[in-house]
Predict the 3D structure of the following.
Amino acid sequence: MDTETEGKAAAVEEMREWCVALPKVELHAHLNGSVRNSTLLELAKHLGDKGVIVFEDVKDVIMKSDRSLPECFKLFDLFHILTTDHDTVTRIAKEVVEDFAAENVVYLEIRTTPKNNEAKGMTKRSYMDAVIKGLKAVEDVDVELFGSNFRTNETLSSKLLDGVTKKKKIYVRLLLSIDRRETTSAALDTVNLAVEMMDQGVIGIDLSGNPVVGEWETYLPALQHAKNMGIPVTIHCGEVANRKEIQAVLDFCPQRLGHVCCLNDVEWKKLKSLMIPVEICLTSNVMTGGAPSLELHHFADLYNAKHPLSLCTDDSGLFSTSLSNEYYLVATTFGLSKFELFQLAQDAVQFVFADDVVKKSLKEVFKHAEKRLL
Ligand code: 6MZ
């Protein structure tokens, strides 16, 4: 390697490390999309040995690096076969939190679809209990799961400030996802479950699933119910060009929107005038065709317009990315400076669904990190 190449490699390495060290807020991460490949392979091997699946076929699918949008949803059906029993749900929830914490994510909203599975004796409630059990089982990281009445946020805030040498600390909150394949009544069950679990770390509702499946009218009663109950809602919007639905979602005016890829000029203008914060998923959108390339991703337009936004991973396992990598991609693709990246990460605190006490504590974390990173 010549000196110039070595210098470039060192600069890349330095920037990557800086993006890891940056405290980050993750607002759009699906539990089953964030599972480690090594865990999926281990689970697949186990089911292969039992003759439930053909391991070699599944292995190739898990390790494949490119994924179209329809392929993603076929894969989720496979992942759900591998992961949907109570013990495995507990395991993946634990690992996912550990992985985000290792990336210096200081606040994480994980979303997951509560599942009924009669064969496994699983109800939506027991599924969520298994998730929470996993969050509580995390050992190498201090997890703050409940509201400030369970463990004082001041305590966690001071721990978050402890720096790199001590145990990492992370706030975790849960969003319950309504899958677009569900009926109105199943969607309402999910919102009612969220109401029931508000004191256990559940903090909001998400609408997700295959965007070419289902009708907006099916979920609207449940989403409206959430709104009436004062539960924050985030909605996957415009992953495909469904004009009628994009319009309806914007009219519903949720607290946040995911993706916003296929909006036309009128919808784009409306989004900007409503100032709804957007969860930006660069790698996911480029891989699934929602954006033509990184360079042409709508992040640039929203960022330049000072529209509220937050960088997110969507499915870090499925798309082999991490939140640090998403910040790195923004730096290298759009030329943001470290100062601008820091601002971007810090601004995301405004869009968390947690209360003002948590926000205040997170602002302290950024204030402290500023001295170290800038
Ligand atoms: C829409 C997505 C998604 O809930 O089983 N999901 N929905 N668009 C996407 N973009 C690629 N990525 C994930 O996690 C997996 C579920 O999250 C939703 C799908 O409903 C998928 O089945 P959970 O933990």
